[in-house]
Amino acid sequence: MSNLKNMLRWEFTLLSRYKIIHISILSVILYFLTTQAVPDMNMPIFHTMLLFFDPAIIGIMFIGALVLFEKSENVLQALVITPMKVDDYLLSKITSLTILSVISAAIFVTLLNIFSGIDFNIPYLAISIILTSVMLILLGFILVSRVNSINEYLLAMLVAFLGLLFPPMLHLSGLYENVIFYLWPTQASFTLFTGVFNAASLELWEIAYGIGYQVLWIGLLYFLAKKAFYKHIVLKGG
C-alpha cells in the first residue's frame, strides 16, 4: 500500500509538471464554450459525445505521453529493478488519470447546468466516467507499451480512436444503427453516458449491459496490460 501511495504522489507530480491537469480542464471548458457558440451543438447528443471525449483523450493520449516520458527518461528501467509490483504501477496510473477525468467531467456538466440549465444525473455520470476511463487507460497502456516513439504511438492511437469511436457515434447519432455495434466496448460507454442527461431513457437491460460489458472488458484489458508490461517493459529492461 505504501508503494502505491508513493507512486500516486509521483503520478500527480507528473500530471502537474507536464500541464496535463491544465490541458484537461481547459479542454472541457473549450467543449462548453463550443456548445454555447454553436446552438445546434447545445443538445443532449453532442453533450454525450463531448462528455465521452475527455476520458477518451485522457485514457488513450495522456497515458501514452506519461509512459513514453518514463521510457525516454529511463524511469521504467529504474522501476523494473525495484520491488515495485506491476499492480501498483498500473493502479497508480489508473487512479490518477481517472480522478482527473472525474474532475473534468464534473466541471463540464456543472457549467452546462449553470449557464444552460441542463440537469444531469450524478450516479450515471460517476459510473460512466469511472468505467470508461479505466477501460481506455488500460487500452492506452497496452498500445504504448509496444512502441518507442511518439510517431508510432500517434498512429496506434489514431487507429484505436477510429475503430472504437466511429461505430458507436454512428449508432448514437441515428445515422446508422446496427445491433453488431453492441459488441464494441465503447458502445457500452455511450449507452451509460446517455443516462447522464436522460436517465429515464435507459431500460434495465441497457444499464446492465453498459456496466457489465465494460467491467468484462476492464478485466480482460487489465490481464493483457500486465502481460504487456512484463513482455515489453520488464523483459526489455524498461
Report on the structure:
α3 (about 45-70) packs antiparallel against α7. The radius of gyration is 18 Å and the shape is globular. With about 240 residues, the protein is an all-alpha fold. The mean pLDDT is about 90. It is built from 9 helices and no strands.
Count the helices. How many? 9
Distance between the termini: 23 Å
Q: Give the mean pLDDT.
A: 89
Number of strands: 0
Strand content: under 5%
Order of helices and strands: HHHHHHHHH
Helical content class: over 70%
| Major beta sheet summary | none
Weakly predicted, low-confidence segments: none
How many domains? The number is 1
Structural class based on helices, strands and sheet pairing: mainly alpha
Any idea what the shape is?
Answer: globular
- Rg from Cα: 18 Å
